[in-house]
């Protein structure tokens, strides 16, 4: 693979758009990972490099939202810790057991999320009675989604937000904002393990980090400036696209490994 200025500019643009999409609805990796593979980056290296630039996107979104007065509750500490533990366990386990069954389970889960959001147009428009306490959610959903991110990855932010709405009774906007912090946590754990193994191409990673940063800043301001109406259709679209991507991979139409 030859690194040219044109290639780096294309990857920068893809990462910037992905950062905007990922901040609002999750699923930005659906754009960046195929772009890396099409650029000729080997599969495992593409996964590692993709994680490295995704960290910057979630970090930028999280710090921007924090500066705007969000994500300051002490109650967030426990789910951050449990999500990190889940991600570490998932990353460790994925290297030691057969997880081929995930290739058909995950598309089903993503389509279920898309169907649920589509059939409930008022989902998360107002707070509802929570089915779990903050501690219960932190000890169940947070580590489960963290484990999923460590073991697989696509749609992690979407799953964090969806469980926040379904089990904590949060608005979709509030759940999406919180999802940025949790997704940042799981991304950091994952990329640390990849970097330790020397799997990241830092030239590409740095270029895409810059794009992710700009896209995440724009996405954060879009979210807070009345962009809530964009979250629901983007969640549906990204869930369907991620599901189709996983089905294509399962059928051998898209080779990621």
Automatic annotation (TrEMBL):
InterPro entries: TM_pro_TauE-like, TSUP. It is found in: Cell membrane. The chain crosses the membrane at residues 75-94, 101-119, 230-248. It comes from the Bacteria. Its main location: membrane. It holds the Pfam family TauE. Keywords: Cell membrane, Membrane, Transmembrane, Transmembrane helix, Transport. It is a multi-pass membrane protein. Belongs to the 4-toluene sulfonate uptake permease (TSUP) (TC 2.A.102) family. This is Probable membrane transporter protein.
């Amino acid at each position: 693979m030859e690194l040219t200025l044109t290639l780096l500019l294309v990857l920068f643009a893809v990462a910037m758009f992905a950062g905007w999409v990922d901040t609002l609805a999750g699923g930005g990796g659906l754009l960046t990972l195929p772009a890396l593979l099409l650029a000729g980056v080997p599969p495992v290296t593409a996964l590692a490099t993709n994680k490295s630039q995704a960290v910057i996107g979630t970090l930028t979104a999280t710090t921007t939202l924090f500066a705007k007065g969000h994500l300051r509750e002490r109650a967030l500490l426990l789910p951050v810790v449990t999500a990190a533990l889940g991600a570490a366990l998932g990353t460790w386990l994925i290297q030691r057991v057969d997880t081929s069954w995930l290739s058909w389970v995950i598309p089903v889960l993503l389509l279920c999320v898309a169907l649920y959001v589509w059939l409930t147009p008022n989902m998360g428009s107002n707070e509802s009675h929570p089915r779990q306490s903050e501690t219960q959610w932190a000890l169940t959903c947070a580590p489960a989604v963290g484990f999923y991110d460590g073991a697989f990855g696509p749609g992690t932010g979407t799953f964090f937000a969806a469980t926040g709405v379904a089990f904590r009774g949060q608005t979709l906007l509030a759940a999406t904002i919180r999802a940025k912090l949790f997704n940042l946590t799981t991304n950091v754990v994952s990329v640390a393990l990849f970097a330790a193994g020397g799997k990241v191409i830092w030239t590409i990673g740095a270029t895409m980090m810059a794009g992710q940063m700009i896209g995440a800043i724009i996405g954060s301001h879009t979210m807070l400036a009345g962009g809530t109406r964009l979250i629901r259709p983007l969640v549906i679209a990204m869930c369907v696209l991620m599901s189709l991507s996983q089905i294509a991979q399962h059928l051998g139409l898209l080779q990621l490994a």
